[in-house]
Design goal:
Elements lengths: L1 E5 L3 H11 L4 E6 L6 H6 L2 E4 L1 H9 L3 H7 L1 E2 L2 E6 L4 E6 H8 L4 E4 H14 L3 E4 L3 E6 L5 E5 L4 E4 L1 E4 L7 H7 L5 E13 L9 E6 L3 E7 L4 E9 L6 H4 L7 H6 L7 E7 L7 E2 L2 E3 L2 H4 L8 H17 L4 H30 L4 H12 L3 H12 L6
Parallel strand pairs: 1-2, 1-12, 2-8, 5-14, 12-19
Antiparallel strand pairs: 3-7, 4-7, 5-6, 9-10, 10-11, 13-16, 13-17, 14-15, 15-16, 18-19
Helix pairs in contact: 1-6, 1-11, 3-11, 5-14, 11-12
Length: 381
């Protein structure tokens, strides 16, 4: 059996490892010219929540990620004025699901996945993105690439992202991304003295604005500053006077170290497959980063693909089984991300005040249990 994977990001690399463990011949085609380019486009870091670290263990990578990652214990909320809005106990979620929450540089996670895929025997072709997906009468599928070559396989897995997915267009016709209504500025920072509280994610809410900081050590963190709408040339001014260490962080970060990203997600698709072409990751179910589950859901796709293919099912039924197994959860993740983004980037003062009051009154133990229930759904956790 031979599979083509279109895209060598998190989803594509994880799928390559999963398929190679079943003895499937795998070629991965990536439009970017070199490893790590995708990570530089998408932000500095990610948190692998317990559902993600569960999959990383199954891929043989949990120890490597834990070695270079930072354990997260709490997500602490505050208002732009410095008022505490409570905190979500991440350790409670970890204990419920049995796996750790680890913050790691995206480039590091991506590198580990790619190396493991190649060690497992996957052939990765950089600088060669897909330009067209075609049917074949013999039941196989064919992909044509940007260099003019083509390849045929029993199964094609489209993991070519949310913005320019050729595989998603083939599967669903027209599935354009939707603007989420806010813009993010992303980066990472290193300080000369201890600045960040170990294990504590800081999530600060303002009027149509949000600032998040995820520590990687006491002196290193990645961060995201978000504002409703777009085109904010003076975006830094919005966060002047916000609680420490935000102002100090921004003063030490040059504009050349910051990436501006207008945020998009996708309406859920009615199907993730067409014949033996399947979409996974952001090509199938791109959620807003406010969901916190982009990496987790991409990794889960790979785990479920392995589980389905392990049964020896026909390649023409894999996509239908994957969609039936995964659609309800990924749709819920998209909806959660949209709801939170709508609340965080609301520009109405009264509604923002009510939002903050609700957060302050939250039973965070019960909230953690609810999060664990969603993240653990469909997995043996």
């Amino acid at each position: 059996m031979r599979a083509l994977i279109l895209g060598a990001g998190i989803a594509g690399s994880a799928a390559a490892i999963a398929l190679r463990s079943l003895g499937i011949e795998v070629d991965v085609y990536e439009r970017r010219a070199q490893p790590g380019a995708a990570s530089s486009e998408l932000g500095a870091g990610v948190v692998c929540w317990p559902n993600a670290t569960f999959v990383l263990r199954s891929l043989g990578l949990l120890d490597a990620v834990a070695e270079c990652g930072h354990r997260i214990s709490e997500m602490r909320r505050a208002s732009a004025a410095g008022e505490s809005l409570g905190g979500l106990p991440i350790t409670r979620i970890d204990d419920r699901l049995g796996f750790p929450s680890l913050a790691v540089l995206r480039a590091t996670l991506h590198k580990l996945l790619l190396e493991r895929a190649e060690q497992a025997g996957a052939r990765v072709h950089f600088g060669n993105g897909v330009s067209e997906v075609l049917d074949h009468r013999d039941g196989s599928a064919q992909a044509r690439f940007s260099d003019g070559t083509s390849a045929q396989a029993d199964l094609i897995i489209g993991a070519d992202g949310r913005m320019r997915s050729v595989s998603r267009a083939y599967v669903s016709g027209d599935a354009m991304p939707q603007r989420c209504g806010f813009t993010n500025w992303l980066g990472m920072v290193r300080t000369s003295s201890p600045t960040f509280e170990p294990g504590v994610v800081l999530d600060v809410w303002g009027l149509g604005a949000r600032f998040g900081i995820v520590p990687l050590s006491t002196t290193e963190a990645y961060w995201a500053a978000g504002l409703a709408g777009g085109g904010h040339a003076g975006w830094r001014k919005t966060f002047e006077g916000w609680p420490a260490p935000i102002s100090a962080l921004l003063s030490s970060v040059a504009d050349t170290q910051v990436r501006e990203v207008e945020v998009f997600d996708h309406d859920p698709l009615p199907s993730w497959h067409r014949r033996n072409v399947i979409v996974i990751g952001d090509a199938a179910h791109a959620a807003s980063p406010t969901s916190g589950q982009g990496v987790g859901q991409a990794l889960e796709d790979a785990w479920h693909l392995h589980r389905i293919l392990e049964t020896g099912c026909d390649v023409h039924t894999v996509g239908a089984q994957l969609f039936e197994t995964r659609n309800a959860k990924t749709t819920a993740i998209v909806e959660v991300g949209r709801a939170l983004a709508g609340s965080l980037f609301d520009t109405d003062p009264a509604r923002c005040a009510a939002r903050n009051a609700r957060s302050l009154a939250t039973d965070f133990g019960a909230a953690a249990d609810g999060v664990a229930g969603l993240w653990g759904r469909g997995l043996p956790l």
